[in-house]
Amino acid sequence: xxxxxxxxxxxxxxxxxxxxxxxxxxxxxxxxxxxxxxxxxxxxxxxxxxxxxxxxxxxxxxxxxxxxxxxxxxxxxxxxxxxxxxxxxxxxxxxxxxxxxxxxxxxxxxxxxxxxxxxxxxxxxxxxxxxxxxxxxxxxxxxxxxxxxxxxxxxxxxxxxxxxxxxxxxxxxxxxxxxxxxxxxxxxxxxxxxxxxxxxxxxxxxxxxxxxxxxxxxxxxxxxxxxxxxxxxxxxxxxxxxxxxxxxxxxxxxxxxxxxxxxxxxxxxxxxxxxxxxxxxxxxxxxxxxxxxxxxxxxxxxxxxxxxxxxxxxxxxxxxxxxxxxxxxxxxxxxxxxxxxxxxxxxxxxxxxxxxxxxxxxxxxxxxxxxxxxxxxxxxxxxxxxxxxxxxxx
Length: 394
Description:
Mean pLDDT: 91
Number of helices: 16
CATH topology of the largest domain: Rossmann fold
Helix content: 40-55%
Low-confidence stretches: none
Strand order of the largest sheet: 3-2-1-4-5-6-7
Order of helices and strands: EHEEHHHHEHEHEHEHEHEHEHEHEEHHH
Structural class: alpha/beta
Distance between the termini: 15 Å
Radius of gyration: 22 Å
């Protein structure tokens, strides 16, 4: 009899977390496991990439509570007062103040989910995959019937808003907590020592074979540029550091380097970056390509791959650039040293425009160093180290 697995996420937006899930699902035997992806909302460029044999379900009540969850409580209460819903408005403000004092939103989640029954179907394993996200962690614990529950952590919790008290209370009720890099796991344990015994590292999975095959599909770059192509893949947001890239490119262009910097990805910082690009007159040199579920042709065709992130958990795009043997520059975010050996298969630099600039000048000027990095990457084992049965299924 098949075991039932359910993974809970916000949506299937084109991002590292969602890609990591798809990669992992592709490695799980569909003959042995009945897999469900349960989404809070029906949205995302990766929806069409979910395998046909995987069930997809949606939380039908999310639209009714989305604003209360995500918008300022003062604004929500004011709107409710205008609608004549006085008791509900007062309750929301009261719970907001109380949860601030207690530093735990459990009571708030309990209130907004009070009319939401638990899912009828029972699973062998329920995974709060889109983590850390407090609402999903609470939802899996209280509204999903499962023999085993797993919490997934995809980020460096010291770099994001992270409620230690809530996590300590809720995660302790889970059977397992997985973190996507050793360094990120250590940081979680430092903050919540009592989780040490149930916490383990589970690296994001990427198939070298799929990356190589997908790199040959699509067109990649279509402009006739014959200089050095620099590439970054990631959501357009402050934590991904594209603003640093724009500053670096301005210096490179001013100093006479024939380069173009391309960014694959979309996000809420696009307008900010477009203004910055215009400020430095880089409209022809810094190219925002938008989101693309298959960025591999761009990675395959670029000359240098740069990951300028301020923080990550375990960077999948870095892994993909390694598989395609690209000369890599990465900032020293959590997990970077677990993928790149500085000076051997890439360069690790500080999270600032000056060190990124110096590293790029070095790789642009020293073509032989790019060749060395590519060769060393080609000599690395490219096996998809899948320990799903060891960690997730047993």
